[in-house]
Input
Amino acid sequence: MRFVSMVALGLALTGPAVASGESSPPSPTPSEMSSSEIKAHNAGLEAGDPNYIKCRKSEVMGSLVKKQRVCRTNEQWKEATARGNEQTRDMVEGFARSGGSSGN
Output
């Protein structure tokens, strides 16, 4: 349940922030955009811009061949990585607090 809460909170926090003088974030979710829409959005943006969209393919659980395209802005990828690192750190610390025993 805690994981679900963390994911929901993370999704709420991934709303893009706009700093003055920077490009505007995409209006639809980047994963819902077509390749041509992403190219049009990225035109004129540097690869390091917080609103530049990058897509990655991830494996679909339960399938050996099916891939899912996940597109996010650089800022969203940065936040997702930070959340993942935080969750992993919390899990390792929790394991250490429990004495490191798996109960077997």
Observations:
- Residues 26-96 form one domain.
- The chain has three helices and two strands.
- The helical segments are 2-13, 35-42, 74-97.
- The longest strand covers residues 53-59.
